Structures are given as C-alpha cells and as structure tokens.
Amino acid sequence: MRKSINPKTGEPLTETYITHVHKLIKSMYNYAKKKKWILSNPADYVLDAPTYNSQEREYYGYEEMLTTFDLLEPCNLRFRCAIYLLFNTGLRRGELIGLKWKDLKIISKPVFVKGIREVKKKFHLAVRREIIRVTDENINEEDIIEKLSNGLVCKKLKTDKSKRDISVIMDCYDLLMKYKEEQIKNGFNPTDEDYIFKTLDAEKVWDPNYLTKEWNKFVSQNKLRKITIHDIRHSHATYLLSIGVPLQDVARRLGHSEPATTLKIYTHSSMVQDEKITDYLELTLSISENKSEYAKFITNKEKDIKDNLLSVYSIITGINLTDMDKIYSALDQLMGEPIDTLSLPKAVSVARNYLFELDPKLKDIASFIESLNKEQLDAFIDTIISASNGAYFDLKPIDDIELYQEKIMV
C-alpha cells in the first residue's frame, strides 16, 4: 500500500491511513481466529507493519490566538463567529457545522449583586452530530442522520464520548446572537431545527471545505503562521493543558474516548505539565527558601477546611459564622442547583434536616454553638479546626430533596 496513490490527491497514501487499514484487517482476522475459522492471524506476520506515528501538531500559542481574534474583527460575521467558536471550544470542523440553534443552552449561575444573590446565565453547547462531504462508498448508511441537498451528509458522531455538552464563554453566545440577527435582517428566520452555519442565501448548510478555504485565505492575507483548520482544535487543547486543566477534563471537552488518546496527541504539552509538578514539589517539599510559600499553602488549605466546617455549622444553627457567599456555595452543592436569595430559607431547612440525618451528632453541636457567647464561639471554632485533621464535610447533592422537604412540614 505504501506505493499506492490516493486517486483524489495524486499523493501517496499516508502512513496514518495505511495503519488504519492494517488494524482493520488485523481485527477481522482476530475475529475469524476467535471463531476457530483460522488457526493464526496472517496480519501478525507482516514485515515492517505500519504503526501510528504521533507527530507533533502545529498550534497557536496564547499571544497568537489573541492576535488572530483582533484580525477577525473586520471579517464577515459568519466566518468570525465560526473561527472564534473553534478557538474557544476545540470542536472538530464537522461538529461546528453540525450545530443547530437548539444546541445552544443557557443555564443558571449564582452571583451577588449589591448583597442580593441572583442567578446569572451561562452558555453551554450540545455537540450531537457532524457534517461531512462523502461519496456513497466511504460511509456506512447506518451512520447517516440526514442527506443534505448540496452533497453533504449529517452523520452520527464517531463515538459515544464524542456526544457531549461543553461550557463556552458568553462572548461566543453574544457573537452567535449577532449572527442570528444578521440572518433575520437578510430575510431568513431560523428555527431551533435549523443548522446555525448556512450559505449566504441561507438555502443550504455551509460546506466545511469552504470554511477551510476561507481560513487558509485569512491566514495568508494576514501573514499568520500557517496552521490548518484542525490545528485550531490543537491550539485550544494545548492552551487548556498549559494552564493546568486536568487531562481527563480536556479529553472530555474534546470528545476523546480515553485521556490516553489526548496524551498521545498532545505530547508537546507534557513538559509544561511536568514543570507544574516541579513547582508543586518545590512548594511542598523544598527545605530552602520556599518555606514561606509552603506556609502559605498550608494556611490556604486550613482556610478551605475552616470555610467548609463553618458553612455547615451556619446551616445547622442559622447563625452566620462565615461569609454568605461560602454558605450559598455549600447550599448550591447540597441542593444540586444555584440558590438565590428568595429560595434561601427553604434551602437551609432542607439542608439542615439532611445534615442532621447524615450525622445525628450535629444536633448536639448546633445546640452547643447556640449557647456560646462570641468569645467562647471563637475559641470553640479554633479548637474544632485544629481537631479536624483535614476532614471536610462531603457536600454531595441531596438524592431526594422532596423527602427532606416533607420532614420540614411534619
């Protein structure tokens, strides 16, 4: 196969493609071997068998991404919106074009405004399908969701893990709304079932190949370092890893089946992560000039424990022993959703009943705390923190809120 030519490009077949074919043949023979149809797998004896070559990906660093965003400002809104989304989500090109208006989701997030807790909106994207250009020979009919009029098909995502919801910055949502307004001004009124990215006349879905051509033209005209449209995905992933986002979280955001896949692709990020390990070791284990930094680390850890305990004690006693923000945060975790000022009394009652059942000793602690004066209370809290040995209250969401709500009424 290494001497074969791709009829579409006129170039030799890539090693990646050859490896894929070899693995497919090998798996077929393994199945036959398992069924006892053959004694051994002929693919095991191939000389110079192809192997996956994990080459370093090109990507833009932080400064290059900011430069790109500035250069996008005068571009047409559809292109600007698409590229900005790719840099901020790590979506594949086909996943981006496969988005429908119904895939935009707004969720609630608690914030304080002049001492009153309100709910702020946060933007999520549901990734459920992708758009590709194919011939009848190179796609499984069972994977096709919809055949589109301009030679494109909407298909199922590659794996179950590729189907995902991701959080996206509100700038992306605002840009999408501007693009939607532009579509409406041009006479097209999009519905939830419409694809977001369409041709300029809004008659067809935007061809992913045209997006690639526009990107290549944009890079050339602005004399940017050349990276492919798919390398934007690598730029997003590399940036997340560089700022310390855990590997498993990056893998989930990208739709990778396993974190190992992410690690194999983004080998250039490994040293960045390794340096973070060194920073942590210097912070915690070094016996030289880092003692003061280690002291800060321990102090912050003790503060987290104290905030956790005081939030719980505030809930069970009704006395504000810490900042309201910390109490609200604990209630958010217990109730499984953001709590605003209006729903605070009910949430406290439900959480108090739940905590008392979780640990009956908390009733005695609540009664004892309520009997103390300010000076005695401060001394008690210091004693409790010292005796906690780093233990937190595990504030997992309450399984059955209605059950504890009923107990309020009894």
Essential attributes:
single chain, 410 residues, mainly alpha, hpI Integrase, Chain A, 3 domains, three-stranded antiparallel sheet, 6 strands, 51% helix, globular
Task: Give a description of the structure.
By secondary structure, the protein is mainly alpha-helical. The chain folds into three domains: 1-53, no CATH class; 62-271, hpI Integrase, Chain A; 291-409, no CATH class. Helices cover 51% and strands 10% of the residues. It is built from 16 helices and six strands. The chain has a three-stranded antiparallel sheet. A hairpin with a 4-residue loop joins strand 4 and strand 5. Helix 3 packs across helix 7 (231-242). It is globular and about 85 Å long.
